[in-house]
Amino acid sequence: MNLAITSSGKPAAFTLLEVMLAVVVSAIVLAALNAVFFGALRLRLRMAAITEQTLPRDLAVESMKRDLVGIVPPGVLAGPMGSDVSAVGMTQPAALEIFTTTGATRSDVPWGDVQRIDYSLQEPTNRLAANTTGRDLMRGVTRNLLATTPEPPDQQLLLSDVQTLQFSFYDGTNWNDTWSQTLSNIPVAVKVSIEFAPAASGGIVNLPMKFLVPIVSQSRTNQTDNGN
Fold first, then answer.
1. 3-state secondary structure at position 140
2. Which residue in 187, 193, 188 sits closest to 95, CA to CA?
3. CB 184 within 8 A of CB 171
């Protein structure tokens, strides 16, 4: 870089005003970069929080959809489905109990693919630690359907901070809020509605979840088609 030469032959130096101006410009640029950096950091943290919140919701919906799609009508191992049941070992009644073909078959366990599933809202094990007014959406799984005495289901946590869980059943003509175990058939479709407790101050708002699952199920029989 060439410096300007004064009339006396000495290089010209920066004035105090020019130095202060350069410092001010540098400070403005650094402040802008700092704002962009921390803005991007806050956005990344918020997106991570949203992803962390959304993933369990997606997994819960997929699990419930698989269970409902796999509903089997009453038979040898499958009992009637219903929203008027009281599951074993649970402090709160089940919102719905079904028999479905979502059981994983393995060579090291004697159970088949049919299993009993119940959904319920249970109080958190530690209400103070949870810091919420909502309850836990639990999925109870019973694999041994031939037990001589009722066994408590294995409880799986699907969602936390749930306020209401509602199933609606379409019988082909009307939507019903309940489905009695005394019925020998299964609904044509099931609608699920989940609402969450109000978010804490500064927390992410949990939007309600609603989804519809068509039920396509046929009774299993040992008859073969002879072409007649």
1. strand
2. 193
3. no
Residue 137 pairs in a beta bridge with 121, 159
In contact, 71 and 183? CB cutoff 8 Å = no
pLDDT, mean over the chain:
79
Number of domains in the chain: 1
Position 44 in a domain: no
**Residue 61 domain boundaries:** 49-214
128: in domain = yes
- Does 219 or 101 have the greater pLDDT score? 101
Classify residue 12: in a domain, yes or no.
no
Q: Report the C-alpha gap between 78 and 154 in whole angstroms.
A: 18
Which pLDDT score, from 0 to 100, does residue 202 have? 58
DSSP string computed for 89-116: T-SS--SEEEEES-PPP-TTS---S-EE
